[in-house]
Recover the amino acids of this structure.
């Protein structure tokens, strides 16, 4: 039986096709979260026996796929299931998405025992980095590469993305080094992330999920600011994978 899980985020749609008999991933893919792709989703996904939906836009896609009787599953449950499948010994999960940041703690059986969410301001999300990279007129990977070169990250104090943008423009006009500004942006995001994690252990590696996990050298910057993370080749797909696995329940 082929089980298809879709994770509909604010920036992208991830899908994973899982086969029950072989307990393996048959295929995976990613699309931009555009109205065009949502309306024509069945043209861009493989054939399946059962389907499940999770993520920010799961209810929107549910209307489109209603004839296929999709199962709706929470993001937290899906990320936990997907992460446990790819990293069985991993207990701390961090998903910095386009709309929010989620921190999940699992016990040894994979059960969720703690969960924290920051969805109040985009200054703690992946979109924050995208917006700041746009101001510096670079792609997001180049933004990370530039930040790694910094020895003196700029201080960015604004807790709001709009004010942070103004602060960065001011730093540019003050001839602050580009690499220091970029590193300051990453530092501010990591400090917000550490505040979200709070009293939970941060001396162990945390599995980074979502699109940021595909950026080279992102782990170098996290460790520079005292937050150890690890990545997996399937980190971006844990939500979709977990959605597929949830169909086994």
């Amino acid at each position: 039986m082929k089980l298809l899980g879709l994770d509909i985020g604010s920036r992208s749609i991830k899908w994973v096709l899982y086969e029950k008999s072989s307990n393996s991933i048959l295929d995976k893919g990613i699309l931009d979260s555009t109205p065009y792709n949502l309306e024509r989703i069945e043209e861009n996904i493989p054939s399946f026996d059962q389907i499940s939906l999770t993520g920010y836009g799961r209810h929107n896609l549910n209307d489109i796929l209603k004839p296929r009787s999709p199962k709706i599953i929470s993001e937290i449950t899906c990320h936990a299931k997907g992460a446990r499948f790819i990293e069985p010994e991993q207990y701390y999960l961090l998903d910095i998405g386009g709309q929010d940041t989620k921190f999940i703690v699992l016990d040894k059986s994979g059960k969720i025992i703690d969960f924290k969410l920051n969805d109040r301001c985009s200054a703690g999300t992946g979109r924050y980095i995208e917006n700041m990279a746009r101001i510096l007129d670079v792609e997001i990977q180049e933004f990370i590469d530039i930040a790694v070169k910094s020895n003196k990250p700029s201080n960015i104090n604004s807790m709001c993305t709009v004010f942070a943008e103004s602060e960065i423009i001011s730093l540019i006009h003050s001839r602050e080094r580009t690499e220091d500004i970029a590193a300051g942006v990453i530092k501010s995001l990591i400090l917000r992330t550490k505040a979200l994690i709070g009293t939970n252990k941060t001396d162990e590696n945390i599995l980074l999920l979502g699109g940021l996990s595909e950026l080279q050298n992102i782990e170098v910057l996290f460790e520079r600011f005292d937050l150890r993370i690890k990545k997996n080749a399937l980190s971006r797909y844990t939500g979709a994978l977990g959605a597929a696995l949830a169909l086994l329940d």
In short: Residues 2-87+236-246 form a domain with the Nucleotidyltransferase; domain 5 fold (CATH 3.30.420.40). The chain is about 35% helix and 20% strand.
